[in-house]
Amino acid sequence: MREQSASLLAAVDAAEPRLRAIGDRESAEPVLAGGWSRKQVLGHLVDSVSNNHQRFVRAALQDSLSFPAYEQVSWSEVQRPQEAEWPALIALWTSYNRYLAHVIARLPADKLDVVCVIGANGPVTLRFLVADYLRHLLHHLRQIGAAEPAAE
């Protein structure tokens, strides 16, 4: 998991200055189909780090994990990241991901194959959840111009 941890740190370190270069007005403008702004996407990524932190730690403490689904639209409606301060969102997202990288690097090797079920999705392992977290993060960072496009 140390490699995944290092990859997460590298992604955060590369994204942070790109995010900070985006002004508050620009961060609030829609950039995705459906009208989501960079603030809303980063708010979604804060939800992702928060939910996955819980999943990773709980899976490492149990023989299996069943976790509720994530209702992204409802979460966004309740939290209203569009109204949050852009620098505060960036600080929260970067700090939390740096801590999650610390956690990932220390996940017990004997727990990486713990079966995890999230909502109505099929079973996956903790190892898969960690890898999928990084894929998801990079996908959204690319959408908002905070990561290099994927190599083809």
What CATH architecture label applies?
Answer: Up-down Bundle
Q: Specify the biggest β-sheet.
A: 3 strands, mixed
Net shape: globular
Beta-strand share of residues: 5-15%
Spans of 5+ residues with little confidence (pLDDT < 50)?
A: none
Cα-based radius of gyration, to the nearest Å: 16 Å
CATH topology: Four Helix Bundle (Hemerythrin (Met), subunit A)
Distance between the termini: 25 Å
Helix content: 55-70%
How are helices and strands ordered from N to C?
A: HHHEHHEEH
Strand order of the largest sheet: 1-2-3
Summarize the structure.
The chain has helices at 2-20, 24-28, 38-61, 72-79, 86-105, 126-143, and strands at residues 64-67, 115-118, 124-125. The chain is mainly alpha-helical and 152 residues long. The protein has a single domain (2-143), classed as Four Helix Bundle (Hemerythrin (Met), subunit A) (Up-down Bundle), CATH 1.20.120.
